Amino acid sequence: MEFFSLEICFQHQSISFSRLHALNCLIMPLKSRVDAKRTESERLQGIVLFHISRASVLYIFTV
């Protein structure tokens, strides 16, 4: 299964598309230490919250 991400940033008026091998390919953009025991869904939740806080929308989908 392959993961893809599509980010729409309203602040910079940009769109970016990335191919990921797994959700853990996304670096958790949080100030706190990344807990290696986090599940992919917990990691994704943190990533999505980060993107919402900087006025962008992140879509993760699989093929």
Structure description:
With 63 residues, the chain is of the alpha+beta class. It has one domain (3-62). Helices cover 22% and strands 33% of the residues. The chain has one helix at residues 40-53; strands at 3-9, 14-20, 56-62. The protein has a 3-stranded antiparallel beta sheet, with helices on one face. It is flat.
List key phrases describing it.
single chain; 63 residues; alpha+beta; three-stranded antiparallel β-sheet; 1 helix; 33% strand
Task: Explain briefly what this protein structure is.
The chain is of the alpha+beta class.
Q: What is the number of helical segments per DSSP (H or I, 4+ residues)? A: 1
Please identify the oligomeric state.
single chain
> Based on DSSP secondary structure assignment, what is the total number of beta strands?
3
What radius of gyration results from the CA coordinates? Answer: 12 Å
Distance between the termini: 6 Å
The helix-and-strand class reads alpha+beta
Instruction: Record the strand order, biggest sheet.
Output: 2-1-3
Shape, principal axes of CA atoms: flat
Report the uncertain regions.
28-32
- Mean pLDDT comes to 68
Instruction: Report the helical percentage.
Output: 10-25%
- Domain unit count: 1
Largest sheet: 3 strands, antiparallel
